[in-house]
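ESCALATION

Customer reports they have been waiting on this structure for their group meeting. Please prioritize. Original submission:
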Amino acid sequence: MRNTRGLAALIFTLFFSTSLFAEYLYQDDVVQKESFANAINPIGQELFEKTGVNLLLVMVRDLENNQSIAEYALTIAKQQSNPTVIAIFAENQKQVQIIASSPELYERFDREQILSPNASFIGAVISSVMFAKSFDDVKEEMSNYGGVVLPVLAERAKGKDVVEKYAVAMFNGYSETAEQIADSYGVTLDSAAGNGNQIAIDVIRYIFYGTILFAIFGYFRGRRRAKLREAAEKKEEIDE
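Update from on-call: job pushed to the front of the queue and completed.
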């Protein structure tokens, strides 16, 4: 997965900026890099200027007093004077969520798609094969794909690559949410990732799910070899 992580890091660096913007990266206890803030803040500012929606990104290491990720996000949302959507990541809880300050805001973006564990239709098929327990489960899995956050978070990483993985995943989710909200208002964002980032994300998806398919193939091949070996051993016992 080294090439995948390297590609993800390259994707992220393409959108670095040195301009000063309002703090739409509302809280960051995880990545803590100026370049990350400079990638997020221009998108948030342009979205607010064109739609009036405040999209904040919150990244915390831990949540205190058994507080849920949704409760923490809503606490922040209540402090805002404008319609607010919060994309939040809690590292120690290994949770990510998108919370809106009002029910009607959820109609402006597809939260299930953005946070789907399946990056593509192929991934949805694989998930349905591996995890579905009923026909209804199969239908749900098959209709749930297009995720841009969890497939990246699911990648293996070590050392500094872990932080880069978090940054890329949440940048993807933030940008996708911003673009969907903007689209619902009939406007486009010049600062968002756009089609160029989508192509690169698709490359990551194919590499990621190609690895899963290879693992599944190896699993069934190993089972088949084990059965053949067991049959051969039984035959030897009978011949003896």
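Sent to customer with the following note: The longest strand covers residues 54-60.
Escalation resolved.
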